[in-house]
Write a structure and sequence with these properties.
Largest sheet: 10 strands, mixed
Helix content: 10-25%
Order of helices and strands: EHHEEEEEHEEHEEEEEEHEE
CATH topology of the largest domain: Pseudouridine synthase
């Protein structure tokens, strides 16, 4: 296994962190690493303030820029195979496999769909996201104008996204609309993670039973696109995705560590697939609908 190229993470200091030390800032903002680890990185000169090496006790001023120069590392394995479903001068449609992250994070940089696509399409940009464990269709813009128009369709709920999901059982009849708000909940390793909370943002999922196989197969349409929305909403309805390691009945978080490691949103094990996507061509306005074949557990009998 080879090292990747390393990465530079940049933070702009806001008024909230005025007067904090550099070490306090990183320890509070990025608790995935211990305070001792951040201290070691500062000592090794990996963290700069306004372009210059800094110290743990330096006090921050709003408007300054912190950069963490992470050395090259060996990334976790991920399936780098993906399928081009449709190519247009303005956009691409990609079938993402489960297990492949879309964007850098959680130790992934080059083992991401974004990095792999940019090797061939340097100006590519994602219009929406899928979780690492979620498979299926993804829309990517190839031009700035396409990105602007397709993003507008997302914001104004003109784009229709339909998923297939697998749950162990179902007790709500053939159809159900879920409107549980989604917001941030405390997480011991990441600080916060999205989940069901009355203080969260409005969200809507429309659920329909479409078949049974090794569980109940649901079609879920999401007019809104909150982080992990389907996983949270189905759990809030009492039926978490089969195999979901993080979200439990009620839409809260499973915080039981396994071998000392807490479940996180990027953990796989569940079955969720972006099946259908409908939108208007960003340049011509033509209505378009695309499908992505689901994996066997979500294929209708």
């Amino acid at each position: 296994m080879e090292l990747n190229q390393g990465w530079i993470y940049q933070d702009r200091i806001t008024a909230r962190y005025q007067g904090w030390t550099v070490l306090d800032y990183y320890s509070e903002r990025y608790p995935h690493s211990s305070r001792g680890d951040w201290g070691d990185r500062l000592h090794q000169g990996q963290i700069h303030l306004n372009g210059q090496p800094t110290t743990a006790t330096t006090l921050l001023i709003a408007g300054q820029t912190l950069t963490y120069h992470r050395p090259p590392w060996i990334e976790p394995l991920a399936p780098l195979n993906f399928t081009l479903l449709h190519s247009d001068p303005d956009f691409l449609l990609i079938a993402k496999p489960s297990g492949l992250p879309v964007l850098p994070g959680g130790g992934y940089l080059e083992h991401t769909l974004l990095f792999q696509l940019k090797q061939q399409y340097p100006d590519i940009a994602p219009i929406h996201r899928l979780g690492r464990g979620t498979s299926g269709i993804m829309l990517w813009a190839r031009t700035p104008l396409a990105r602007q128009e397709l993003s507008r369709q997302i914001r104004e709920r003109e784009m229709v996204k339909i998923y297939r999901a697998l749950v162990a059982n179902w007790s709500h009849g053939e159809q159900l609309t879920i409107t549980q708000p989604i917001g941030k909940l405390p997480h011991p390793a990441l600080g916060t993670v999205y989940g069901a909370t009355a203080e969260g943002m409005a969200a809507e999922s429309r659920v329909e039973v479409v078949g049974e196989k090794s569980g109940v197969i649901l079609a879920v349409t999401i007019p809104t696109g909150r982080p992990h929305q389907i996983r949270i909403h189905l759990a809030a309805a009492g039926h978490p995705l089969l195999g979901d390691p993080l979200y439990c009945v009620g839409g809260g978080l499973n915080l039981e560590p396994v071998n000392g490691i807490y479940p996180v949103p990027g953990d796989c094990g569940y079955w969720l697939h972006a099946h259908d996507l409908s939108f208007h061509h960003p340049r011509t306005g033509e209505p378009l609908t695309f499908h992505c074949p689901p994996p066997p557990p979500l294929t209708l009998p």
